[in-house]
Amino acid sequence: MIKKVEITPENEKFLNKVNELSGQVVTLCEQCGTCSGGCPLVGEMDITPSQWMRLVQLGLKEVLDFKAVWVCASCFTCTVRCPRKIDVSKVAEALRQIILRKAIDYIDLKAIPKDELACLPQIALVSACRKFTG
Amino acid sequence: MKIGVYVCHCGGNISEVVDIKKVTSFAEKQGDVAIVRDNAHMCSDVGRNLVLEDIKEHNLDRIVVAACSPQFHGKTFMDIVEKAGLSPYVFEMANIREQCSWPHFDEPDLATRKARDLVNVSIAKVKLDESLERKTMPIGKRVLVIGAGIAGIQAALDLGDAGFEVHLVEKEPTIGGKMAQLSRTFPTEDCAACILSPKMADVPSNPNITLYTNSQVEKISGFLGNFEVTIHKKPTYVNENCVACGICEEKCPVKVPNEFEQGLTKRRAIYVPFEFAVPYRYLIDEDICIYLKDGKCGNCQKVCPHDAVDFTQKPEKIEIKVDTIIVATGYDIFDATEKKVYGFGTNKNVITSLEMERMIVHEAEGRATREIGKRIAFIQCVGSRDEQIGNEYCSRICCMYATKLSQLLKRGDPKKDVYVFYTDLRAFGKGFEEYYKRAQRTGVKFVRGRVAEVNEDSKTGKVILKVEDTLARQIIESEFDLVVLSVGMTPGAGTKQAADVLRMTRSPGGFLQEAHPKFKPVDTLNDGVFICGCAQGPKDIPDTVAQASAAAARAIRLMNKGVYAVEPITAVVDEDLCSGCATCVSVCPYDAVKTELKDDKRVAKVNEILCQGCGSCSAACPSGASQQHWFMNNQLRAMVGAALGEEEE
């Protein structure tokens, strides 16, 4: 089903927020798709990097509903290749920040059994704290 | 003194922000101001006549026009003032559009105040304006055209046909430039060689054109009407006896990649650049000839039946004098090895579009140079619109030549799969959109997405592209037999050298800068020097030819009357104050100042023809001896005083 979207002054605010957080001018993206074509993880994503750039340009908040920015490994391949010199990784980070600032706990660290905690890889733990706790 | 002040509305451009009434009533109160008027369009016939009639009727002797930039309409009003019988230099323009209403549109009160101040400044200056006279200088009819691609050829032919003496210099051994290498031309698909070769042949047969091939302009000094040019002509080691019989070539043992064929075929050390080269004569490549290197071989000389091979030829220095110069030094294609992700230079199945041009020519002539394959991909914007490699500009031709090459391939063999991967498809010219449609109808597939990377399948040798189809939002990873890089244009070594020799300004992309992007597109900031073709910026053949004819016409405009007007805004030296320190000599960018002995005292002397009135010397002069007409120190002081609201002395 094709969804209709509305473009309102509210959308501009969302775009400006992403611009401010990322330090990038997202409207500079010419939608060439270099970022997506070279992305090593694009096969695991639900939308492509250029798609999240587009959704941000239009100020559509549903970009936050997709998981792609969480798949992004910040490898910077997109950043070093973008013909408009946009740091796409920073835009992904800005989108992650917007979600993280809602401070929602998805995991309860106290509920993890101690012996399990002892054998969990540290890096996974740190990452989980960052991504899944407020 | 009677000053007339005219305030322009610019059809709302000014009056919608600046309160015209306030400006005029302010001007009315100033001393010596006899008449103040405002008009919707001062530059129109009505506006101009207003000035003209007022000068005659009210005996005005000074004019101030508050309107747009003097760059834009300064000359318009100066001509009117001159027509009314005054010196065109008793005129001032206050720029209340670009400096008031446009930048300060959101602050109308301040914009009005600034407009009032600028009018005040102009009034202060105009009172001290001298009645300078435009001088005229004699000028001849000799033109130097640098570069003999299609731009230089067109300009030279136009000038030659009009009866001007043309010196056409080309660094390659033949004229024709890049166009000679093309297969067909979009959108009409004329064979490039077929339409170019008659024009090339016209050059040596034109009695007014002197052609210097294998030559480079080494040095240019002097000025409009008196340029002194040094041309360095490399030896070809083959004299005019050559009838291009080709016997020598058969005996030459050296083989190197043929640059005209983009390395697809080989040529010998003694060779003709291509079959319709002008001059059509053999030459020896001195870098690879065995005889020239170590005195052995000499086969060509032995077999030549016409005694045409002459190893004693030496480089020549030719000195000529010309009145104007046209720079048509063209472009180089982007060096695709710079774009490493596309693997050009390491992957033999990745080629440039210029190679594809040559391949198509050979294929059409039934002597294919290499296998083209069934699946062909064109990658657009290689070296253009890419800030990672430092080229921000669009090269303008790649969309259409890819459209051309792709459909020539597809029509030649409908079983071929031809894809064009593009970011934006720009079909801007006459007939281009229709031509693009024709390619789509032929079955060329256009995919919107810039190719991210090109990899080689180590087993099959095939090329694998990775690209996002940004319309379907799918990632394509597909194999192709051949990948064609649609390389863009770069300013090229010849253009860079010409810019250095002539001290020309270059635009951000490195191409030569025109004097005004709209109204002086082929003039430069160097008087008497014109530019055309791709030296000025990327463009296609029709635009190049149009610009070349335009440059020829602009040069003719200067030379045709036999005299030209010289701006009297030059530096002037007060010899009593001058200590002969020569600071001005060292800062002058035009070599216009020299020192000389006068009554046993060393003083600076300005060549008024060379002087462009840039003001460098006036600023540098430690004793204030060097000043500039129309911007004399007392005028500048009065302007600053007026700007600061000081009372008149």
Automatic annotation (TrEMBL), chain A:
Keywords: 4Fe-4S, Iron, Iron-sulfur, Metal-binding, Oxidoreductase
Highest rank taxon of the organism: Bacteria
Gene3D superfamilies: Alpha-helical ferredoxin
Assigned GO CC terms: plasma membrane
UniProt GO molecular function: 4 iron, 4 sulfur cluster binding; metal ion binding; oxidoreductase activity
N-terminal signal peptide: none
Protein name according to UniProt: Heterodisulfide reductase
Lineage: Bacteria, Bacteria division WOR-3
TrEMBL record, chain B:
Tagged with keyword Oxidoreductase: yes
Keyword Lipid metabolism: no
Keywords, in A-Z order: 4Fe-4S, FAD, Flavoprotein, Iron, Iron-sulfur, Metal-binding, Oxidoreductase
Cofactors that this protein relies on: FAD
Record-given protein name: Disulfide reductase
Pfam annotation, one family: Pyr_redox_2
GO molecular function: 4 iron, 4 sulfur cluster binding; metal ion binding; oxidoreductase activity
Residue span(s) of domain 4Fe-4S ferredoxin-type: 233-263, 280-314, 569-598, 602-631
Protein family: Belongs to the HdrA family.
